[in-house]
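BUG: 3D viewer hangs when loading the predicted structure for this chain

Environment: internal workstation, default settings.
Expected: structure renders.
Actual: progress bar stalls at 90%.

Input used:
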Amino acid sequence: MYWKQTKIFNKTEGTVVDIDGPTVIVEIDRKGACRGCQAEGICHAFTSPVMKVRLPRPSFPLKVGDKAIIAIQPTSLVWASIVTYIIPVVAIFFAIGITRQCGLSVGFQAISAVLAFLASLPIVRRIGSSFEGPMILEKNNP
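Structure tokens produced before the viewer hung:
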């Protein structure tokens, strides 16, 4: 398995809360998943302390309540981050630049920036879905 042969950039532990056919829903403590990240205190300041993630069901048996090690490949994490943060920013600056070159007012520039941001979200989602997401590596039951 390719995952076992590469250095894993980010690993965390989660608890299996549901098994739904080919997918497993795992609950992960945000503090544990984000430990060490520079934006740890900012990113999820207004969200739930736990996140539920739908992952592909692994080849080994799992049951509800099992602890599992979740990991993401370094290249997937980096590219997903770039796509998530850079594309909307580029879209915003592009929209502001065009409206400014056309001599439109600041109000139109702001509206075009918001519209460009909203238009970039489906693009980000489509590109992001092509990256290999996190996977369950192994059970971590004592």
